Amino acid sequence: MRQKIIRLAESRRRGSHPGLMLQRYLIKQSDSTERPDPTERRKLLDAACEAVRNSALRAIYVEAYRLWERSFAGGRPFRSKRLATAGRLIVGLGSENVLETGLRLHHTYGVPLIPGSALKGLASHYCDEVWGQRHLGEDAPPQNKQFRRKRPTDAVEGEYHRLIFGTTEDSGVITFHDAWIVPESLEDGALRLDVMTPHHPKWQTNEAPPTDFDSPVPVSFLSVAGTFDVRISWSGPAATPSEKAEAWIDLAMKILCEALAEWGVGGKTSSGYGRFVPAVSLPGARPQPSPGASKPKVLPKANERVEARLMEERTRKGGWKAMHPPTELVGDIQNSAAVPHDKKPGDTLELIVAFANERGIAFRFPTPEEEARAKRATGRGQDGPGRTRRRR
Fold first, then answer.
1. CATH number where 337 lies
2. Helices and strands: H and E segment counts in the chain
3. How far is Cα 182 from Cα 61, in angstroms, rounded to an integer?
4. Full-model pTM
5. φ/ψ (deg, to 5) at 330
6. Model pLDDT for residues 106-142, shown as the tens digit of each residue
7. 182 & 264 share domain
8. Which of 33, 71, 364, 375 has the largest count of CB atoms under 10 Å?
9. How far is CA 74 from CA 65, 69, 180, 250, 371, in A?
């Protein structure tokens, strides 16, 4: 059987199912170890990247994707949101695989897929830790505690969390579906060649302490880049009023999108993998201007003082977030502890811009020292408003 696979080496170049190729088309192992030969490994990964661009695969997948879309029509309330990878995505990295590094692909079509179970687990954990404000312990507001997952040490059960995500005894009212990659992303090559370089492999296996004499061992693997269709639907009692069901769906989608943006899904999230941003437009499409937009937004400069509105949403550590109304950018207040305690969400206050670009912004609350420096700088060289001191 192995010899027959080896004779298929040439046909690997014409493959159209990346998953099948990664599982069955490895030609040879290294002679000295059980690991795949590096050269052969690279050829196989390159072939898989090329296979996802196959026109026949795209044609079949488009029909399957449209059929999947139609399956939601006329059923229970649902929400769909297209989210694009901010960088790279790797789901199923630790799964069993002949290449040591796995990747979750659709079993039938071989294209990238995000399991609904992964999305639900991420949203559940984020809801418990962030929306439930676990970092504040019992000092968290009672409303926030409703978003916590029930634990033996909790005096109050998180009713909102239980309803959305369910428990081991009962399912929740929201179904998290597998996220399918949109067909347009296959044209750009959804699979990307990536590499990790462990610098201290012996230390990581408890064989020896790390030193500067260790030789890095590059390990190539596949990651994903593209736009995914994220969907959730109502699975609670059919007698529930539609407006109430849709309110719960909107809440669950907000939690999920926030978790995907802040924490990411899949492996290597601590290295920036798995983050998602809203897909403003599909690949090749021109972004449409917002209604009423007459001129581009002007970004504030660093150290510029601006008016910003405090947000109800908080950072992972419970700090304040604020929005710059002219640009609608939302960012952290780096020294949130300096914000007066009597301030509440919706209040407008003057902040100093720490940095700002098209994708984000950060603020500082003016400290007394900064206020004193600003007054000295304003008064230096002037006798009063509009009058400059003359030198004699």
1. 2.40.50
2. 11, 15
3. 9
4. 0.66
5. -115, 135
6. 999 999 999 999 999 999 999 999 999 988 888 888 8
7. yes
8. 364
9. 17, 11, 20, 18, 60
